[in-house]
Amino acid sequence: MKWIVFLLKQYQHTTQIKNFIPKNLIGCGYIVKIDGEEIYFAGDTDNVEEIRNIKCDIAFVPVGGTYTMTIEEATELVKEIKPKLAIPMHYETIVGSVKDALEFKEKLKNIVDVKILMK
Fold it and tell me: Pick from 5, 55, 48: which is nearest to 26 by CA?
């Protein structure tokens, strides 16, 4: 397996988001290239303008809501960036449940393949 870190996508929040993320916080996500596939890991983020032009084959997208994107925001992002596969994350830990992942998958049915990784 051959892999390299391809891109560190940095963004700055210009407004306070959800009362948890302070204004002007610098955040980032990662794009890793493994065997020719580009994998985007959004991390703890919201659907901010700076990530809407990401190009990737696989997208790990948070759906927990409280500290990250809601299911609706995550669905909107995936529809914009159009990966081949979307994998919901950041649910069933501090907040959210597997129901969030299932709803995310249902909203993207016939649009993008979604795989739920169970514990």
Answer: 48
Give the integer Cα–Cα distance in Å for 117 and 5. Answer: 23
* Domains defined for the chain, CATH in brackets: 3-114 (3.60.15.10)
- Sort strands 26-34 and 37-41 into parallel, antiparallel or unpaired: antiparallel
pTM summary value = 0.81
- N- to C-terminal Cα distance for the chain? 25
pLDDT digits (tens, 9 = 90+) for 46-74: 777 778 888 999 999 999 877 778 899 99
- Which H or E element spans position 28? strand 26-34
Nearest-5° angle of CA 84, CA 90, CA 85? Answer: 5
